[in-house]
Amino acid sequence: YSFIRTDQLDGETDWKLRIATPMTQSLEDISILISDKSQTVKIHSEPPCLNIQEFNGVFSWKSEVPLSVENMLWSGTVIATGEVIGCVIYTGTDTRMVLNTSKPRHKFGLVDKEINTFAKLLFLGSATLALVLVILKGVDGLWYRYFVRFLLLLSYMVPLSLRVNLDLGKLVYSWFIQQDKDIPGSVVRSSTIPEELGRIGYLLADKTGTLTQNVMVFKR
């Protein structure tokens, strides 16, 4: 048997027990499995999946023995005690660690979504107004040219510089957070959503002992 750590997979720091199959626990030399010509060792496993809490398989040698998660060492685990001799079942993109790895997504704040919505509405309004002006002028063979002209004249309705000013404001706001003497040691890891701190209604914290050393003080 051996103890392993899976904090790289599920974030749990407690050690977990892993044992060998009952058929191989009494073997003095693992080379017997290879040198035995009369019996072939076979392992039948389930297809690759995301679940790291379960495993179904069969170990065949002289007889069949079911395999469970207690017999598995997922990729990314660390052996804490003892030595382990095993057989590789999943490799590459079939490992649980790779399958549970998600692509990082770009974070959008509520202010960004609101500005995008307003910009779309303003563009739609300017396009509608440009079309109305073309109709009032009279639709002829070159009406689309006048539509583009009116659309360019009304383009000031869409605040293109607002996005740049907002990003600069977020950078300044992030700098002020890091320089705040009331919250020393603060690090802003994302400068795209610092204004979301003012919209927080509920704060849910997990692993408070790990993050706060069992001390958490709320200041209003």
UniProtKB/TrEMBL annotation:
<dbReference type="GO" id="GO:0140326">
    <property type="term" value="F:ATPase-coupled intramembrane lipid transporter activity"/>
</dbReference>
<dbReference type="GO" id="GO:0006897">
    <property type="term" value="P:endocytosis"/>
</dbReference>
<dbReference type="InterPro" id="IPR023298">
    <property type="entry name" value="ATPase_P-typ_TM_dom_sf"/>
</dbReference>
<dbReference type="GO" id="GO:0005886">
    <property type="term" value="C:plasma membrane"/>
</dbReference>
<dbReference type="GO" id="GO:0005524">
    <property type="term" value="F:ATP binding"/>
</dbReference>
<dbReference type="GO" id="GO:0005768">
    <property type="term" value="C:endosome"/>
</dbReference>
<keyword id="KW-0812">Transmembrane</keyword>
<feature type="transmembrane region" description="Helical">
    <location>
        <begin position="114"/>
        <end position="136"/>
    </location>
</feature>
<dbReference type="InterPro" id="IPR001757">
    <property type="entry name" value="P_typ_ATPase"/>
</dbReference>
<protein>
    <recommendedName>
        <fullName>P-type phospholipid transporter</fullName>
    </recommendedName>
</protein>
<dbReference type="InterPro" id="IPR023214">
    <property type="entry name" value="HAD_sf"/>
</dbReference>
<dbReference type="GO" id="GO:0006890">
    <property type="term" value="P:retrograde vesicle-mediated transport, Golgi to endoplasmic reticulum"/>
</dbReference>
<dbReference type="GO" id="GO:0045332">
    <property type="term" value="P:phospholipid translocation"/>
</dbReference>
<dbReference type="GO" id="GO:0016887">
    <property type="term" value="F:ATP hydrolysis activity"/>
</dbReference>
<dbReference type="GO" id="GO:0005802">
    <property type="term" value="C:trans-Golgi network"/>
</dbReference>
<keyword id="KW-1133">Transmembrane helix</keyword>
<dbReference type="InterPro" id="IPR008250">
    <property type="entry name" value="ATPase_P-typ_transduc_dom_A_sf"/>
</dbReference>
<dbReference type="InterPro" id="IPR018303">
    <property type="entry name" value="ATPase_P-typ_P_site"/>
</dbReference>
<keyword id="KW-0472">Membrane</keyword>
